[in-house]
Amino acid sequence: MEIESQPTTQSPWMQFLRFVRERCSETAYENWFAPIREVEFDHTGITLEVPNVFVKEYLLTNYASDLKSFLPTKSDGSLAIEFSIAPQKRSWNQQKPAQDEPKRDEGNNKEVRLNSNYRFSTFIEGASNQFVKSAAVGVASRPGQSYNPLFIHGGVGLGKTHILHSIGHHVQENHRSLRVQCITTEAFINDLVEHLRNKSIEKMKRFYRSQVDVLLVDDIQFLQNRLNFEEEFCNTFETLINQNKQIVVTSDKPPAQLKLSERMIARMEWGLVAHMGMPDLETRVAILMNKAEMKGLKIPSQVAFFIAEHIQNNVRQLEGAVNRLSAHCRLLELNITEELVEETLKEMLQKCPSERISVEQILKSVATVFQVRISDLRGNVRTKNVALPRQVAMYLAKEMINESLIMLAGHFGKTHSTILHACKNIEKKVQTDEMLRRQIGIIRRNIGSYTI
Ligand code: ADP
Ligand code: MG
């Protein structure tokens, strides 16, 4: 037997380790190779115990050809390696209660305090965020054992931070011995800079290596174009993931669209990548009602629908609308009506980017409410039942369409002074004419439902 005849020689696996150790960084070695255990070896093959599937993938992706020079191969030339996953050292539930844990060292002081309102219980579910929510609940219930990392991406103000903090709360409440670290990427970078300046980087590394069980990283997109920090982040990431510590990352883009190294992107894609979309109308209404209720504000449902129809791209804006209404109503002791909402949220609703209104839509909406023909609105008939609606259309066009007067006049086939005159006239009339004010309110509200 070959091995017995050369008892002093290192095993092929040890030889391989020596080979890679000379070729990779100390951190990479500690992260990827040191945790692997050789379980069994004979001429037919080798069995390696790895802490998780990532280590196996890393080894086979990056070192397949080197492994073949050291380890046994099968007749078809493929590697004769069996992998087994090491059992978890302690199950989460059996860990010591938090008070027995050693005091955390001060390797990191940029920790984000979890927002007490951002909980699963206050997160409203809808088709657009159900997937993310259930993945987050899964991760929070069994940290390090379901999807790792969990990568959540989506536009601004859609609830990513809310979900991230919810995971943090859930873990703190249900796995009391687990140490949760929630950081923004900016804070991580600042912390790193500070530790580098104070020459205490080892302390920071030690902190992440031994004092964190669940790492929540908000807004990873800020790592883009920060090459010096990317590597350190990646090392920290690998250290944790190989100890089966849970990582959750949020981003405004999916991994592949981030301007980060391939290595980093690959790591982000290892676990589960989940997209968070804009909630549909019903969910937006539910969120709005919920936020209002939390503020002790009662919003009639048709008003909630009205707001939710006009604010479509950002839940944070919906919340802003509730805050503004609440302040306004409290101050003036008013009840919430659609007119009040229109008045209070005027700029907000207009700023909504989804509202790109055309003259055609305005004409359709005006024609419906005043029961006239669009061709009459465009024409020159001066009878009162046509002239007034025509002026209303001009007034709304000036208010809702961001174009010069000359351009707008062109759409109506009139001069710009006709438009100006119409606007002045309607502005004056609505001061006293309640009926007209209501009609204009309805027209405004309906415009979105007319497509061009
Ligand atoms: P992001 O991090 O994606 O930019 P945030 O998590 O900061 O967004 O969310 C913005 C605001 O909207 C927060 O106040 C959050 O509570 C709220 N929000 C977003 N989505 C929901 C939801 N589905 N249910 C309840 N509140 C939500
Ligand atoms: Mg956020």
Structural summary, described in words:
With 452 residues, the chain is α/β, with parallel strands linked by helices. It folds into 4 domains: 74 residues, GMP Synthetase, Chain A, domain 3 (2-Layer Sandwich); 157 residues, P-loop containing nucleotide triphosphate hydrolases (Rossmann fold, 3-Layer(aba) Sandwich), CATH 3.40.50.300; 64 residues, Helicase, Ruva Protein, domain 3, CATH 1.10.8; 92 residues, Orthogonal Bundle (Chromosomal Replication Initiator Protein Dnaa, Chain: A). It is built from 21 helices and 8 strands. The strands form 2 sheets. A 5-stranded parallel sheet has the order 5-6-7-4-8, sandwiched between helices. A 3-stranded mixed sheet has the order 1-2-3. Strand 2, helix 4 and strand 3 form a beta-alpha-beta unit. The protein is elongated and about 105 Å long. 31% of the residues are buried. Bound molecules: adenosine-5'-diphosphate and magnesium ion. Magnesium ion binds next to helix 6.
